[in-house]
Every structure is written in structure tokens, then in C-alpha cells.
């Protein structure tokens, strides 16, 4: 691995760069909260060689949204389901937009 490869990870939203302690600190929450949203299958942290949980920036954004909902009084299981549905909706809207762009008259991209 070259130095360029290592630095490229800094821009990778899915690279598991944060330990559980650091993630909890960044989100101003507890490690127990991170475990709970993991148990609810909202996020699945990767494990280091030593078995420690590691979180990506994308997972931290998802966890932060769940935390917002819980802070507003939403039960954790419901908050996790809401975040999952929001994420699915965003993905569907992105795919729909790409499809419309690809099928517009004069588009140089062909539909799959």
C-alpha cells in the first residue's frame, strides 16, 4: 500500500476509521447507544483484528440521525426504522433521478 492509498481513505465515507469510544464522543452519546442501534440493525460496525468495533463517517451520520429522533422522544427501535426508511427513500430518489436523466431525449447515456 502506498502513501497515496492511505490518504485516499480519508475521503472514503465507508472506511471504518473511528473506534467506539471516539464515535460516541463525536456524537455526544454513550457507547451503549451505539451498541443498541447495532442490535437494532441500523448500523453494523466492522471489527478490527482485535475484535473492536470500528465506525465509518457514513455510519456516524446515520447514528447521529437516530440520536436526533431519540432525543425528540422517539423509541430507539422506531427511530432506527425511520432512519432506515429515510435512507431507502433517498436512494430510490437518486436512482429515479439517474433513470430520468438517462432516458431524456438527447441523452448520451443509454438506459440499462
From TrEMBL:
GO terms for molecular function: DNA binding. Signal peptide: none annotated. Gene3D superfamilies: 1.10.1660.10. One of its GO terms (biological process) is regulation of DNA-templated transcription. Coiled coil: none annotated. Residues 17-85 form the HTH merR-type domain. InterPro entries: DNA-bd_dom_put_sf, MerR-type_HTH_dom. Pfam families: MerR_1. This is MerR family transcriptional regulator. It comes from Streptantibioticus silvisoli. The lineage of its organism: Bacteria, Bacillati, Actinomycetota, Actinomycetes, Kitasatosporales.
Amino acid at each position: 500500500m502506498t502513501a497515496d492509498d492511505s490518504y485516499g481513505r480519508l475521503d472514503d465515507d465507508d472506511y471504518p476509521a473511528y473506534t467506539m469510544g471516539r464515535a460516541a464522543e463525536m456524537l455526544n452519546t454513550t457507547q451503549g447507544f451505539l451498541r443498541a442501534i447495532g442490535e437494532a440493525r441500523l448500523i453494523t460496525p466492522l471489527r478490527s483484528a482485535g475484535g473492536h468495533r470500528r465506525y465509518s463517517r457514513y455510519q456516524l451520520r446515520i447514528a447521529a440521525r437516530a440520536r436526533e429522533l431519540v432525543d425528540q422522544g422517539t423509541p430507539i427501535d422506531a427511530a432506527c426504522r425511520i432512519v432506515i426508511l429515510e435512507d431507502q427513500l433517498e436512494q430510490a430518489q437518486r436512482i429515479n433521478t439517474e433513470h430520468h436523466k438517462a432516458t431524456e431525449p438527447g441523452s448520451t447515456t443509454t438506459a440499462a
